[in-house]
What we know:
This protein is mostly helical. Helix content is 79%, strand content 0%. It contains 13 helices and no strands. The protein has helices spanning 2-16, 23-32, 34-39, 46-56, 61-89, 97-120, 122-128, 130-141, 149-170, 172-199, 206-220, 231-240, 246-277. Helix 2 (23-32) packs antiparallel against helix 4 (46-56). The mean pLDDT is 79.
Amino acid sequence: MSFVFWSLRIKLLSKTNGFKISFVDSFITVISSLFAATITPGYVGGEPVRIKKLNDYGVPYGNATAIALGERGFDSIFFVMIFLIIIFSGLLILSGEMKTYTIIGLIVLVIFLSFLLLSIGANNLFKRGISWFEKIYLRIRKKDTGRDAVPKIIEQIEAYSGSTRKIFLQSPATLLLGIAVTSLLWLSDFMVPSMLIIGLGFRPDYIYIIFIQVILVLISLIPITPGAAGIMELLMIATFSIFLPHGYLIAFVIVWRFITFYLNIIIGSLAIHKVVTK
Length: 278
């Protein structure tokens, strides 16, 4: 279901920028980026693949970049909403080790929100420094022929900045719909541990499980290991030990990691093989 909602989000953001991408093409864009995203630190490998696939479907690189990075903007908005719900609900979750995890997660979240705000004004920021950029670029190239590349770069930067403004500022309906689809996307993923806990015969705390996964996702974005391998397993064992006895905990983490990590590698590798062979 998360793949379905993810595809709908890409289709929505593409439509907002005036590009009609079918659901099937959006779905292919999603699954073909899974392999690169999973094996790279911070999942950064997925964006270039999605940008390339969107360009193959007729979306200019500047607009495709805004769509791919705009998705992280919607993710950040969803995570902020979860933080606000937790804070205003008065739940005693932000204590002990969770407080440390939360601080790390908040730092990552602030970085992404700052990047989103800078993206909206990227056009103006770039124009202010274009003379300096041009001098450095031409000095590296040592040829006047490189001057022709600068307007093309500016054109893509303007397309990127304009697309970002369209997504987050000029269309309230798109913003609300994007937040709704993003919420369904992440909640689909976040229900996996709850279903596994129920399957093992125990009762989950849904709010706590959703919140801890938000923290874990934010921590996993720190580029330490590919797909946060090893780190996520240890954090899951530490944070879910309150729900499950140790005899069940290892089996729970293995199955959860297979569904949310290794299955992505399998599906993504098959999809990228199909795309490359085409």
